[in-house]
Amino acid sequence: MMQGTPLLLVLSLALGAYGISVEKCNLTGHWKNDLGSNMTITAVDEKGNFTGLYNTSVADNPSKILQSPLLGFQHLTNTNGQPTFGFTVNWTFSEATSVFTGQCFVDEYGKEVLKTMWLFRRHQNTIQDNWNGTVVGTNEFTRLEPQME
Ligand code: BTN
Description:
Blueprint: H1 7-16, E1 29-33, E2 38-41, E3 49-55, E4 68-74, E5 84-90, E6 97-106, E7 112-121, E8 134-143
Antiparallel strand pairs: 1-2, 1-8, 2-3, 3-4, 4-5, 5-6, 6-7, 7-8
Bound molecules: biotin (BTN).
């Protein structure tokens, strides 16, 4: 009955029943979030450091949006291939900074998803305005499939 059934598939199904994923989540590549923002993470190095580019779909001043660099770190030592990570986006078109922290998961369909939480810091002109400087939120990123020409 089991003849011809790939061993990995059987193993995946068995472990999946216990919520254990065989697939690994890899940060490298093109991602899109629930706001429509895109980011590209270039190769993660041997220490877990990575760089990338962020194209936000929303901004305080949307007419000024420009692609902005990001710098991050991920754990390499976790056992189930679903590492935590963090990155900072240095917005090139404003004086704001965003930090994201999250975990790279493989969901029940085998799809990679980045569950993140962020802090967005706007520049304030005075210390009295500090109360208005920070926004907190969440974003979920899924892998952007290659676009057909
Ligand atoms: C700015 O408005 O000065 C910079 C753009 C900030 C965009 C924020 S960062 C958190 C959230 N997630 C996104 O993809 N975009 C917004």
